[in-house]
Design goal:
Largest sheet: 8 strands, parallel
Distance between the termini: 10 Å
Strand content: 15-25%
CATH topology of the largest domain: Rossmann fold
Radius of gyration: 23 Å
CATH class of the largest domain: Alpha Beta
Number of strands: 14
Shape: elongated
Structural class: alpha/beta
CATH architecture of the largest domain: 3-Layer(aba) Sandwich
Length: 392
Amino acid sequence: MKIAIFSGELPSSTFIEQLIEGVSERHQVFLFGVQKQPKTYASPHIYKYISPKRHWVNFAYTLYRLVLLLLKRPGDLKPLLNEIRRYHTRYEQWVWLTRFLPIILYRPDVFHMQWTRDLEFYAFLKTRFKIPMVVSLRGAHVHYTPIVAPYIADVYRTTFPLMDGFHAVSKSMASAAMEYGAELSKIEVIHSPLSPQVFEVYKPYQKRVHQSFRIGAVGRFHWVKGMRYAFDACAILKERGFSYDFTFVNSNPIDEASLFQMDQLGIRDEVQILSALEQQALFKVMQDFDVLILPSLNEGIANVVLEAMALGIPVISTDCGGMPEVVIPNETGWLVPVRDPEALAKAIVEVAESSEVELQRITQNAHDFVKEHFGAEDSIQQFLDLYEDVGC
């Protein structure tokens, strides 16, 4: 089968790259989009059909592809041009033509769209060209995007009933999709696979004595990640005389509101902000944490928490989205209410005061849990089964 794994740009996120490589062992994998960075694949079954960033190169590619389409399937040109006409300006029409044309020309047997919101642009592949489509359901695009952008809710209500299959990263995500018309029988809950490297560097937990308790978080400065509540918790800890250092590894520049909040709360000396790190370097930094916190307002299932659990680091998460499916109180970690800095501060102190034996029990449980439920081989097989069901 020819499986298109589509995220819009190459290379994609780590878990999507793992999916690409895993699926290529059984099927041809087609990649469409803009290439942001050079990327080569060892598998001969992965085919890249990029839209070049340079305009003159893109023009040449597009002209060549138009000729090929006219020679191979001229009947596909009219519906493609009809789709392009719904965009208002000539420039928009040109941009979307360069993106859509490779997909129509190299028509896959299954088109797996990684980001739900892209249905706004690509649902026509199903309605106009009858290409079987699978849609991944991940945190933000299903939980809060339809609320902050109501027209997206209408897009979902129109398109979800038409899709051939859905991949949900958690049970809570599956439930959310059903509110927009996704059929339960078409939804497969498949956990995003963790990199095998994270299990290779696992270390059984050992309680360390530091001058300050080391709190860590990994993510980005965005309101849904709840960092304002983490900073409030830090202020509570400082006020109560709890000695700590807080390291936040972020993937985007710090915003003015966060800088102002840290200064106003008087926690600038306790908080260290690090820029995004390559995976192995990130794991090394994380292994120096005494606890990893996730103060998010919403998540599918946060990969960074799974990685921390795999590494043997105690975790505290808010009870948002699919997080209660993996962070089980007194078993695999600590769970606190959303928007509750007091509860978060209390949980941090509880971790700090827990015995080494108790922390070893919980971190070992957590490691075993993610190793059993988030292994790459099992999840890849689930995707293969889904593609074969949809593509047959």
